Amino acid sequence: MVIDVHAHVFPRISRQESRILAGAGEPWLRDGMMMSGEDDYRPVTPELWDAQARLSAMDRAGVDVQAVSSTPLLFGYAADADRAADWCELVNERVLAHCAQDPARLLPLCQVPLQDLDLAVAAVTRAKAAGHRGVHIGNHVGPRNLDDPQIIEFLAHCAREDMPVLVHPWDMLGADRMAGYMLPWLVGMAAETQLGILSLMLSGAFEKLPASLRLCFCHGGGSFAFLLGRADNAWHNRDIVRKDSPRPPSAYTDRFYVDSAVFDPRALRLLVEVMGVERVMLGTDFPFPLGEQEPGATVRDCPDLGEAGRAAVLGGNAARFLGLGA
Q1: For residue 184, what is the DSSP state?
Q2: pTM of this prediction?
Q3: What is the number of domains present in the chain?
Q4: Cα separations in angstroms, 94 against 26, 100, 104, 142, 322
Q5: Strand pairing class (27-30; 33-36)
Q6: What is the span of the domain harbouring residue 36?
Q7: Which of 2, 292, 301, 323 shows a CA-CA span of 20 to 30 A to 118?
Q8: Is residue 311 part of a domain?
Q9: Quick check: helix, strand or coil at residue 168?
Q10: How far is Cα 83 from Cα 232, in angstroms, rounded to an integer?
Q11: Mean pLDDT in the chain?
């Protein structure tokens, strides 16, 4: 079975409905265009909002199952928390309806008003009861990284609810220096993802979080795998790096998953060596142009994976992560 853990949806949301967010982005969909208020944000194809177009694309690509998460533009973290809670309810209902077109193949992930602990916790519990299979969050809320005490408590709640968490980079740092060439996506996303991972490691958060938490970072963990040696070296040689973490960063690679969206078999080989083959899952960033255009091609072309390794990355690990067949 081929399971894609990183696939996005932007359900049909009207301009009027987007006003729930009251100036905080106000994303909506108009004639194949993602909108932010009155501004065009990005042109998109029907696979992003039309379930039958999505399923047809999956058939052509040989993908059996997708874990379907909202487009990060929809997070609503900049809004007032009560408005964001109402917004997340709307988005989550639409994602459920989208996935109901084929619930065996389309697994909905909810989003939450992560800016407020109580509202976020309640949203997860409510979403699980409604049929969502996991949670999709950004890697930070304003200046608060994943090691923020309230976000740690939120992650602990997800573990108690047995809801896996997919972490996606968004609102990239240094945007004023990355105006062209999609550099926020090419540079900022990798840095944001590494920042999210290291914030959990070096803060000691993984020592506090339940081992049962299932956590996955998109985009191959960003630059984390390539720079893990640098982080370990800093931990061993600088007390200000290791002051809150009893173990070096490399000791925590068994506490989370990453997807395979690195687009180069050589990079995937390193990722598997760093994380272990059981911690890497197929992720394509469907259906965006910067995603993997031939789902699973990088996995199939990766040297040294072997038949069992390829099967694990293409679907076996995701089945465990998502609790399929449990």
Answers
A1: I
A2: 0.96
A3: 1
A4: 16, 10, 17, 26, 21
A5: antiparallel
A6: 1-108
A7: 323
A8: no
A9: strand
A10: 42
A11: 96
Which two structure tokens, joined as six digits, stand for 279? 């911690």
Has residue 31 been placed in a domain?
yes
Contact 77, 114 (CB under 8 A): yes
Burial environment of residue 320 by CB neighbours within 10 A (0 to 12, 13 to 18, 19 or more): middle
User: 145 with 196: CB under 8 angstroms?
Assistant: yes
Is residue 246 assigned to a domain?
Answer: no
Amino acid identity of residue 162, one-letter, is: D
Which tens digits make up the pLDDT trace of 235-294? 999 999 999 999 999 999 999 999 999 999 999 999 999 999 999 999 999 999 999 999
Tens-place pLDDT, residues 174-212: 989 998 999 999 999 999 999 999 999 999 999 999 999
- C-alpha to C-alpha distance for 220 and 228, rounded to whole angstroms: 13
Task: Note whether 280 and 272 are within 8 A (CB).
Answer: yes
DSSP H or E segment with residue 66 = strand 65-70
Q: Is residue 55 part of a domain?
A: yes
Question: Nearest to residue 218, comparing CAs of 321, 80, 147?
Answer: 321
Q: How confident is the model at residue 303 (pLDDT cuts 50, 70, 90)?
A: confident
Q: What are φ and ψ of residue 181, in 5° steps?
A: 60, 20
State both tokens at 112: 């939450």
Residue 130's H or E segment, with its range, is helix 117-130
Identify which of 125, 112, 210, 85 has the alpha carbon closest to the alpha carbon of residue 167: 112
Nearest-angstrom CA–CA distance, 188 and 16:
32
Instruction: Answer whether residue 326 shows pLDDT above 70.
Output: no
User: d(Cα 200, Cα 206) in Å, to the nearest integer?
Assistant: 6
135-178 residue pLDDT tens: 999 999 999 999 999 999 999 999 999 999 999 999 999 989 99
Pick from 207, 196, 210, 206: nearest CA to 161: 210
